[in-house]
Design goal:
Chain A has 259 residues and is an all-alpha fold. Chain A is built from twelve helices and no strands. With 306 residues, chain B is an alpha/beta fold. Chain B has two domains: 218 residues, Rossmann fold; 63 residues, Alpha-Beta Plaits (2-Layer Sandwich). Classes of the chains: A mainly alpha (259), B alpha/beta (306).
Amino acid sequence: MKKALIVLEKEWLELRLQRALLLATMFLPPLLTTIAIAAFVLVGLVPASGSAGRLPLIPELVGLSPRELSQVLAGRQFSVLFLLVPIFIPSVLASYAIVGEKRERTLEPVLATPIRTWELLLGKALAALIPALAITIASATVFVAGVLVFAVSDHVRELVVTPGWVLAVLVDTPLLALIGVALIVVLSSRVNDPRTAQQISAVLVVPVLGLIFGQLAGVVVLGPALALGIGVILAFVAAGALWVATRLFQREVILTRWH
Amino acid sequence: MAHAIETHGLTRRFDGRLAVDGLSLAIDAGTVFGFLGPNGAGKTTTVRMLAALIAPTDGDAIVAGHALGVDDTALRRSVGTEQPGLYDRLSARQNLRYFARLYDLDAARVDVQVERYLHLLELWDRRDEPVGTFSKGMRQKLAIARALLHEPTVVFLDEPTAALDPEAARTVREFVKGLRAEGRTIFLTTHNLPEADELCDGIGIFQRRLLRMGSPAELRAGLFGAGTIVRVVGDAARFVPVARSLPFVRTAHAAGDTLTLELDDPDSRNPDLVDALAAAGGRIRYVERLQHSLEDVYLRLVGGHK
């Protein structure tokens, strides 16, 4: 475990030296949070035109005032975007940490040390996961604070900051991030460019986009049951992806099959 | 003398392709062993097996007192492998500190060892500069420093002077001799044959399997036998028939004023040779011992197996 922390420390030292990558990666969540809160505030200030009663609403939204309805709809759409952050950040960081190391031919000297391959993998995974989860939780907390402060009513607060969404942030996002890292490891055995790995791993956003559009269309409501159900599925996917990743991330395989 | 490396029938296949075929060798501790062979001969695969990076398909080995496949983590702690990859964004000191910690050096020793090897390899003045700004030679020296941080008893060096200017190459050669003087065993893979001749106590010529092994002198004697070079006044070609007629001369060739002869026991036969050439009208300028280079040995062995 000690060596995993040494790897983690080195990864962060390298990350600090890559200012452009650091800025590009860490810039998105605060921007997203700012836009989300700004949109939430703005739709609360400007009453929606027309009557909310003409819209095909899901039962829990029936009876809301136009302002409330606007804030709930805006808040819910933006809240789901926070599920994208833990896919985006670890994919970028892990691709540089693993594919970059492969490209610079630094993996072999590391593997020649007494480090165990799981310690190396864990160090690299944590180096990508910790910042991703930290910034996701921090951004989501700021978003929640914004909702609590700027909501036009308690009803809006309850309908935006739902137990389902909180569960999704706390349970589903770490699993999504883990899948992202595992996918990067799998891709690293085949590609030599971090950007290629990122582009391929972007496929992970598809289910989240499905959730977003499902919410927009009113066919999906992110309740606790759905969040947990997604969590269970993600847990299985993560376990499978980690199994494949750890099989590929072995000294012998890295040295003889990663080209 | 104890063996630092001992292998028995070490074999490695990749998807049915034989990369290393039944390698058996024993290398004395505290010596420099040159491992020579053409590109693609299986040298890197051999080093990877001996450094416990990949497992052999068959056979076994003991390296630095550790049997392969038993406690490979302990084995890795006892050997150092020089490899090219370095973290370009990190400084020389940061690179070495990282590896020193991965090699389990305690906190107090990390900085001591890093400083020691940066000084020894003349990189101390550039210690805090990103490695990405280093020349190829400096990177090579840093890679050597990295391989030695944890004071391994067996060190694998791969073309350690390949990218160095003559002065830096000499520094590294002297450094390697110093490592041997400290009692370490150096396993040197190189294409620089004069360097191998200068540094190595033992040489293995390898092309998927071990073609020949011995000291440089043994290899020369085993392949070419003893010989003499005679420089005469005028064209040496007219003395070739005379030389060939002598019963102790095995081969004789002329080029310009030089007669090159392989013969049995030159120390006792050279006077008879000189007498015969003088009797045939030859006027002798010089008589010297025929020294085959390691390159001659290598080319004969490797060329003969292509």
